[in-house]
Design goal:
Alpha-Beta Plaits, six-stranded mixed β-sheet, 11 helices, alpha/beta, about 325 residues, four-stranded antiparallel β-sheet, Rossmann fold, elongated
């Protein structure tokens, strides 16, 4: 069972309030490596998480996402490298560093025979929370996770969406500075996915969050920044907004009932290149300073091409992911 932050109740815990104001990187990992059975899974990985940031970790099955998250949470020891959480070295002071962490693995660590509030009280005690704080923390956590109406119910009787909420609740009951979520919406229906995404966005207001996901729509709706993994390495890092415009080419998709020869389209003023999609449909690319849309409308009328479609090009996140990873075909529902 992954319960982080088991500590000596008499120890003195550092707080983010005591950290220098200039300390904006709340978690960093440097040169992490990890092997299994002689196979190198993570050859050399470094990443940073800023205060108040929601970071999405994206990649195919086998890319190394879960292994990375397990190392960041101290559940798996790296062969080499360094991890610091709120200025604390995870290797040298693991108990103290983990007090700043909340972790939801892909399979939630639930005792399904327990009622919700009993289980959450138990996890709070495992984290050595002061007894005077547990009641208030439980009330706040039940409210934040939308669990008030099921607090007395046995976890095994809950839907998968509510069980996922309980899993998130155990990760945040001690108000950690860093929350790490491994595939938090996997297997949920669309309504449950929407609710969990809303919760993650709310968590980002008070904590820093890392989540792994195989849903590109999740990156677009939840994450501030994206890291893409491939074969145990980070191959891309940027804001989710800039990712959407990665290597974007300007142009139009045009459909013509009576299209001209390809060379005639290629020679049009302002057109830099043309791709033939079908006998009657084409992609026309143009330079950033040009916008030949009105010209195309006029020419289609003048030359009898019989225009059926003229649509500005839109690059989906699936297209962007394919370009970054070098894939020819990517489905947003099969990436992991």
């Amino acid at each position: 069972m992954y319960i982080l932050g088991y500590i000596d109740p008499n120890s003195q815990l550092p707080s983010l309030l005591t950290l220098p104001n200039a300390y904006q990187t709340i978690l960093f990992a440097r040169n992490l490596t990890r092997s299994f059975g002689g196979a190198v899974i993570i050859p050399d990985l470094s990443l940073e998480l800023k205060r108040g940031e929601v970071l999405g970790l994206l990649g195919h099955n086998g890319a190394g996402k879960t292994t990375t998250l397990q190392m960041l949470t101290g559940c798996l020891t790296p062969d080499s490298g360094q991890i610091e959480i709120c200025g604390l070295d995870l290797n040298k002071t693991p108990a103290l560093a983990k007090t700043h962490l909340g972790y939801l693995p892909e399979t939630p660590p639930l005792y399904r025979e327990l009622p919700v509030e009993t289980y959450l009280s138990f996890t709070a005690k495992l984290r050595r929370m002061d007894a005077t704080r547990i009641s208030a923390a439980l009330k706040t956590t039940l409210q934040r996770c939308g669990l008030e109406s099921v607090r007395k119910k046995t976890i095994s009787t809950l839907s998968k969406g509510y069980q996922q909420r309980v899993g998130i609740a155990q990760a945040i009951i001690h108000s950690p500075d860093v929350i790490i979520l491994d595939e938090p919406t996997v297997g949920l229906d669309p309504v449950q996915i929407r609710d969990i995404r809303d919760l993650i966005r709310e968590l980002g207001n008070t904590s820093s969050v890392i989540l792994s996901t195989h849903l590109l729509s999740e990156v677009e709706s939840v994450c501030d920044r994206v890291e893409i993994m491939q074969k145990g390495r980070l191959i891309y890092s940027d804001s989710s907004l800039r990712m959407q415009h990665y290597d974007q080419r300007l142009g139009y998709v045009i459909s013509l009932r009576h299209p001209p020869e390809l060379c005639e389209l290629e020679n049009l003023a302002g057109i830099t290149s043309v791709e033939k999609i079908s006998p009657t449909q084409f992609r026309l690319y143009h330079a950033p300073g040009d916008n030949p849309g009105d010209m195309l409308l006029d020419l289609a009328t003048q030359r009898g091409w019989q225009l059926e479609q003229l649509t500005p090009l839109h690059h989906s996140l699936e297209d962007v992911f394919s370009k970054i990873t070098g894939d020819e075909c990517v489905s947003s529902e099969t990436q992991k």
